Amino acid sequence: MSEPPDTDPPVPPYPPADDRPPLPADEAPADVPSIAPPPPLPRFAPPPADLRPRPFQFTGDGAEYFRIWIVNLLLSVATLGIYSAWAKVRRLRYFYGHTSVDGTAFGYHASPIAILKGRLIAYAVLILLAVLQQFAPILASVIYFPLLMLTPIILVRAFRFSAANSSYRGIRFAFDGLERDAYAVFLFLPLLVPLTLGLAYPYVAKRQREFFVAESRHGRSQFGLELPAGRVYRIYLLAALVMIVLFFLGAFVFFATIGLVGARPDVDAGPPLALFVFAMAIYAGMGATVVAVRAAFENLSWNHTMLDQHRFESRLKARHLLWLYASNIALIAFTGGLAVPWARVRLARYRAESLTLLPGGPIATEAMQGSESDAATGAELSDAMDLDFGL
Fold this sequence. Notes:
ten-stranded antiparallel beta barrel; 10 strands
């Protein structure tokens, strides 16, 4: 009986990969070059912040503001001062709205009624004091003390009112200073000035400016200011030295002129006229010193002010301010007061053009903004509780 042929079972042409036996070493395929993995997708980082300096600008015009000013003046006179509250709002809205930085103007949102309430209270107090001064001077002197004790509270309320009704890019400013701190800065510290023969005045001015700036904020962004005491004292001591020289120079010329007139009774009117001219020169020198101190102190304050990571640069020049003040006074005198709008516009333009914002990051971010409820509450409280006394 013959046996069936010895044949292998059929092999599937494509066995499953898991069941595929490993190939012998001599039959392994040639190495296949590896394929590099694809590069990761690029991550889109936010663009870097534009850190270019942002100069302030004022775009107001004297002729344009004159129309607002003359209407405000006539209506205030016609209403015995009642319209002055609305006049102030119109004036500040004009100057805020024409002052801008980074292409955005500021805003002023105060209610004239709140201003009117504060002014009516202030006028009532002044009238009461004037009447008492005539008929009961002792009682008027007694009332002065509690009014003096209320001064820090009035100042804080005025700062708070002004800040809460000012805005930039839709974000309100705010002032968080407390009355108890204001008492120390505006009432008790000034008592050191006469006790130190004026030597404490630079320190008082330093603390008062720091209190006003450091307690202010824009939305959630806090302002900061720490003035170097040495530079503050240098400004005021140089001014005091100039004032002392002018005083002694004026006193010397005055007594010398009096002695000359007494020694020569028949002298003509020349020396008294020269004395008058010299006295005017002395007063002009004192005024120039005050302007120089103001310019230097403003520059120092702005150059040390911070708003989060942002800084400021102020470049006020005393000689330019002196020219503006002198020419404005001459224009106002020559026009009988009608040049007041042009004088205010000229001064506002120079002050704006002398100030620059130095960004340290984005100008306005979500972190700077308060919530809508916070903004609404702040505006309502400023109208309902705070009063503007025209300080």
